[in-house]
Structure formats: C-alpha cells, structure tokens
Amino acid sequence: MSAKGRQAMGFTLIELLVVIAIIAILA
After folding, report:
1. Quick one: which H or E segment has residue 15?
2. Which residue range(s) make up the domain with 27?
3. Which residues of 8-26 are buried (b: 16+ CB within 10 A; e: fewer)?
4. What digits encode the pLDDT tens for the residues 2-17?
C-alpha cells in the first residue's frame, strides 16, 4: 500500500494518540 492509500483510508489524530499512548507506556 502507498502512503497516499493509508491517508485515504483515514489517518486521524486518534491513530496519533494511540501511538503516543504506546510510547508513553513503554517509556
């Protein structure tokens, strides 16, 4: 899948929050 394809599917702030949450837990 291309980067544009992922964005088309819907890259929202929710996904960013999930990543930040995982990093916070691992940190």
Report:
1. helix 13-26
2. 1-27
3. eeeeeeeeeeeeeeeeeee
4. 666 666 666 678 888 9
Q: In the structure encoding, which two tokens stand for residue 19, read together?
A: 């990543």
Residue 10 φ then ψ, to 5°: 120, 80
Q: How many domains does the chain have?
A: 1
| pTM greater than 0.90 | no
Rounded distance between C-alpha atoms, residue 2 and residue 18, angstroms: 21
What is d(CA 12, CA 6) in angstroms, rounded to the nearest whole number? 11
Name the nearest CA neighbour of 2 among 13, 20, 11.
11
